[in-house]
Automatic annotation (TrEMBL):
Protein name in the entry: EngB-type G domain-containing protein
Cited PANTHER family: EXPRESSED PROTEIN
NCBIfam families per the UniProt record, alphabetical: GTPase_YsxC (TIGR03598), small_GTP (TIGR00231)
Region of interest called Disordered, as start-end residue ranges on this chain: 86-108
Location of the EngB-type G domain: 134-308
GO molecular function terms listed in the Swiss-Prot or TrEMBL record: GTP binding; metal ion binding
Keyword Iron: no
Taxonomic lineage of the native organism: Eukaryota, Fungi, Fungi incertae sedis, Mucoromycota, Mucoromycotina
Native source organism of the sequence: Mucor velutinosus
Pfam families to which the protein is assigned, alphabetical: MMR_HSR1 (PF01926)
Alphabetic keyword roster: GTP-binding, Magnesium, Metal-binding, Nucleotide-binding
Length: 337
């Protein structure tokens, strides 16, 4: 015999089921969305991981201010291509504003800053040979053959520091007098050099001893080759300096060998490596010992750091005296002929 349920009972059950479904449905859709997001994130990260270092480097987009800074330092101009058309529009607007300001106020004169005569006074292969701590010091360190010695010569307008294309020429800590103002220190290179591992280890220990125990040391300039950027040895040295509470700043050399966009991207990558290090100066110095681009600005920053930056008129007078001396020399030579 068939049993029939009342219609009201069937209706109540249907309403209960519908309520249950309407309660569950949003969570089901949310779960689907989360799973989809996870899968897409995995795809994105896997796609990023598959990119080569060169592809990641090419994807960097430096700010327009960085291009303007490099152009001002003398590293060329941004070539007008389809790829950089947006940057050119920004630059054109800023150049127009700057020109209008210059027409009203006039261009600010920037003198050529100068160091006193550079002279060698001590060399040390062991810590006991370090000279007494008399003047403030700044040290230059970096991988072998990145251009530390050439940089010191360019900044000091000298040829006292020996240079070579062979890695590992500097095999001791060399101390130089910058007149009676301060000392500049040329340190051995770390990383590859034409010496055995034991000697490289000895250099490293010597440098760490100097860096950690020298009370007159004001700053360490870590010199990098702009073409190669930051290497593993550089990262290790950054971390060592940071752990020893030593203030350091990165200097990119041989910047004339890079086109402007690649140089700007290189600066961005270096800044990314040091941004988490408390004792790193975040402003990256860019120079070229060959063309002298950026050298005058670097010289000015060093003088300011050491507390010996004079008014602009002081350097203008020095330059005027040099020009007058050169003119007299040229005139005397022409008279003899």
């Amino acid at each position: 015999m068939l049993h029939y349920r009342p219609f009201t009972q069937i209706l109540k059950q249907a309403i209960a089921v519908d309520r249950h479904l309407t309660f569950i449905r949003p969570f089901a859709s949310l779960t689907t969305t989360i799973n989809h997001a996870k899968s897409s994130t995995k795809k994105d990260t896997s796609a990023t991981d598959t990119l080569s270092n060169r592809q990641k480097f090419n994807q960097i987009q430096p700010p327009i201010k960085l291009y303007e800074k490099l152009e001002k330092l003398g590293f060329g101009t941004l070539l007008k291509t389809k790829r950089y058309s947006g940057l050119h529009k920004q630059k054109a607007r800023r150049d127009q504003q700057r020109q209008q300001y210059t027409e009203r106020v006039g261009p600010p004169p920037e003198p050529k800053y100068a160091f006193p005569l550079l002279s060698f006074f001590a060399g040390a292969k062991v810590p006991t040979s370090f000279p007494p701590e008399s003047l403030d010091e700044i040290a230059f360190v970096g991988r072998s053959n990145v251009g530390k010695s050439s940089l010191i010569n360019s900044v000091a307008e000298s040829s006292v520091v020996r240079t070579s294309d062979k890695p590992g020429l500097t095999q001791q800590i060399n101390f130089y007098n910058v007149g009676t103002l301060f000392h500049m220190i040329d340190m051995p290179g770390y990383g590859f050099a034409f010496v055995d591992d034991a000697e490289r280890k000895q250099w490293r220990e010597l440098m760490e001893t100097y860096i950690t125990k020298r009370k007159t040391l004001k700053r360490v300039y870590v010199v990098l080759d702009a073409r190669h950027g930051v290497k593993v040895a550089d990262v290790d040295f950054f971390k060592m300096l940071n752990s020893k509470q030593v203030k350091f700043q990165v200097v990119l050399t041989k910047c004339d060998l890079l086109v402007l966009p690649n140089l700007a991207k290189r600066i961005v990558t270096v800044e990314d490596h040091i941004k988490q290090l408390r004792n790193a100066v975040k402003d990256v110095v860019v120079v070229s010992s060959k063309t002298d681009a950026g050298i005058n600005q670097f010289r000015k920053e060093m003088l300011f750091l050491m507390g010996h930056l004079q008014p602009k008129e002081f350097y203008q007078a020095i330059q005027a005296a040099k020009d007058e001396k050169e003119a007299r020399k040229t005139k005397s030579l022409s008279f003899k002929k």
